[in-house]
Amino acid sequence: MNVRPQQLYRQEFRQRILAERPQSVLEVGCRDGKCLQELLAAGVHAEGIEVDPAHVAELRARGLCVHAAKGETLPFAAGAFDLVVSEYCAHHFADLTHHLAEAMRVARRGVFLLDPWYDLSIPSQQLAERWDRWFKAIDRAAGKVHHDSLAAQHFRGAMPNGSRWSFECRHVLHLVAVDDAKFASENEPYLAQVATRPDDLAELQAITAARAQSGLTDDGAIMVLLRAAGSTCSP
Questions:
Q1: 65 lies in which domain range?
Q2: 3-class secondary structure for the chain?
Q3: What percentage of the chain exceeds 90 in pLDDT?
Q4: pLDDT, tens digit, for every residue of 78-120?
Q5: pLDDT (tens digit, 9 = 90+) per residue, 21-51?
Q6: For 146, which of 44, 129, 136, 227 could close a Cys bridge (C-beta 3.0–4.6 Å)?
Q7: Domain count, the chain
Q8: In a domain, 172, yes or no
């Protein structure tokens, strides 16, 4: 099975964080805690937030400083951290504008975000984006917050009016084919739901047929780097 490129994107993203030489970082959405662990190993004071108390307890048991909180109401004073960062969470934010406003309030120097992105000039990426929208539409119908992929204009447009923060956006793509095993495993949790929804089932069948023609490749990544006025940019 091919290794998904998300780990490469995460590594590059964390290198960009460390290149800023922050003394303190808040991570919004810690997931498995690996980003916090890497920051701590590099000598950075790192804390995180998660919504699920059980997940918070699990991460705390591993020695990580994690708080039960939501991104739109961060329980920290203004300028409490050098950087506020987030990996693969922005498309789950109920209100991107509120999340960015809170992150910018708490960050002294910058807010860095990593999220999925598709290069729609490539047929296999066009199909990947279509497959992604299929998943997310089913999740939204089940009541989950799962937005379609966010473009640079979405992040820029969500910045508070009158903000003097700089906006930088970078895209990265390592083309890796989604093999049969990965395609089947990603679809499997949704099969019971679509079995009684003819339109969703037909769309999956169409995606499967198109995959045989154009191929299907994993997502690329968008890195959004917001820096406070007067903050020094990394090389």
A1: 6-227
A2: CCCCCHHHHHHHHHHHHHHCCCCEEEEECCCCCHHHHHHHHCCCEEEEEECCHHHHHHHHHCCCCEEECCCCCCCCCCCCEEEEEEECCHHHCCCHHHHHHHHHHHEEEEEEEEEEECCCCCHHHHHHHHHHHHHHHHHHHCCCCCCCCCCHHHHHHHCCCCCCCEEEEEEECCCCECCHHHHHHHHHHHHHHHCCCHHHHHHHHHHHHHHHHHCCECCEEEEEEEECCCCCCCC
A3: 91
A4: 999 999 999 999 999 999 999 999 999 999 999 999 999 999 9
A5: 999 999 999 999 999 999 999 999 999 999 9
A6: 136
A7: 1
A8: yes
Half-sphere exposure of 170 (CA within 13 A, CB side): 11
> What value, to the nearest 5°, has the Cα angle with vertex 83 and ends 8 and 88?
40
Where residue 159 sits, what CATH number does that domain have?
3.40.50.150
pLDDT > 70 fraction of the chain, expressed in percent and rounded: 97
Residues with Cβ within 8 Å of 203's Cβ and at least 6 positions away in sequence, in order, are: 134
Please report whether residue 232 resides in a domain. no
